[in-house]
TF-B3 domain-containing protein
Amino acid sequence: MENITKKLNITDVERRLLLPENCLEDLRSDLEANLKFKDEEGQEWTFRCRASPGGRSKPALYGDWFSFVRKKGLRVGDVIVIISDKEKNISAGGCFRIKIKKSTSKH
């Protein structure tokens, strides 16, 4: 998986984080999985990832995602970067890293 950079929209902060298609191809065999993420402070989060059979829709993150949004004060326009450690097998319990770039806009 390549690093994913996503500017958050209203759906991302209020309902679920939609990821680009095929970004989690290594997890396609599991249509639902708990994925571990570490933030910049080293706190670990578990986000539930859902993908549709056959890859017809974008994968989405749920679960602790909402707690993460609230705790970090994320808003529309903020940017997140998801980084995969290619040395670790994510499906075997490896961890993604997640970084936040706050928007300077007050919208």
Q: What stands out?
A: Strands lie at 4-7, 17-18, 32-38, 44-50, 60-63, 79-84, 95-101. The longest strand covers residues 32-38. The chain has one domain: 4-101.
